[in-house]
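Contributing new records

If you add data, match the layout below exactly. Sequence lines come first and carry their own label; structure lines follow with theirs. Keep one chain per record. Anything else will be rejected by the validation script.
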Amino acid sequence: MTYVEGFIVAVPTANKEAYRKHAADAAPLFREFGATRMVEAWADDVPDGKVTDFRKSVQAKDDESVVFSWFEYPDKATRDAANQKMMSDPRMREMGATMPFDGQRMIFGGFDSFVEEGTGDRGSYIDGFVLPVPSGKRQAYNDMASKAAAKFREYGAIRDVEAWGDDVPDGKVTDFKRAVKAQGDEKVVFSFIEWPDKETRDAGWKQMMEDPDMQPDKHEMPFDGQRMFWGGFRPILDTAAETATEREPA
């Protein structure tokens, strides 16, 4: 199944177009290195949380917006080889010197997908999720996520991917583990749902919330929902096609 490199970035809101262009300029290199897809999605409906949220995860300032991003690879070996090439390629070093955001607060990691429902058309609206799951409850979470993915597809989602933390490094300022306040043997899950548009997403969530089969048993939840965070994003770059598809900034 797909190996996912996930990112969360705080970008000055005024730098939205500069960030999109920076990502678009880098996209051909990532494809050259082996990435099959690169998605950059700009915050649209990202709520504040009491314990964790997207903005807290990257210490976003008042004048910054959050970007939810991921690269897709056919397997971990391809991803690892790509990262080695990135480290040694002078073109990447040149781009790294002109980043339109604070790279020290970017968080990233490698995730091994275990649910991948849906193929074909790519979404115009994305729900992103990050959460901590105890290692001992991995199968219970897998079962729950697989059931939910089928329902999301029934209610209009194009694609649902759940990916288990595999190579999630500690950061000096921010990282995925700190973002969800991971404890003990908890692993980070990086997940996204692609929808054809925001209207379908909003309607789909309403149906999910009203579906009697999807009502959570708070005593049997295989993770701490208070430390999960989520939000809605609009893609500003998606290289699903052979040539990068650049979308106009919203």
